Input
Amino acid sequence: MREVKRIEIVIDKPHEPKVRAALADLGVPGLTIMDVVAGYGDRGSREGGELSDALMNRYLLTTCEPGQVAAVAAKLEPLLRKYGGLVLISDAQIIRNA
Output
């Protein structure tokens, strides 16, 4: 096991490619994407069955090295300000050779 930072992102589906590109630019090693997540927040309620992709959320899960977390946060913050969403960063341990 080794220490990593766990990054959880909820973003409107149309903006997910921008988040993926930002993470790829930083060399974040992989990404898990869960489609059509429901919830509510400052931009209203998302039930997951909207008629348009523009109103659907996606959940992205990834990890990065502890030394990368400041760069990841700096790269994602402008996207959140522009498009909304949520990013949670927490400590985690990963069981995998890398």
Observations:
- The radius of gyration is 14 Å.
- The helical segments are 16-25, 69-83.
- The longest helix spans residues 69-83.
- The chain has a mean pLDDT of 86.
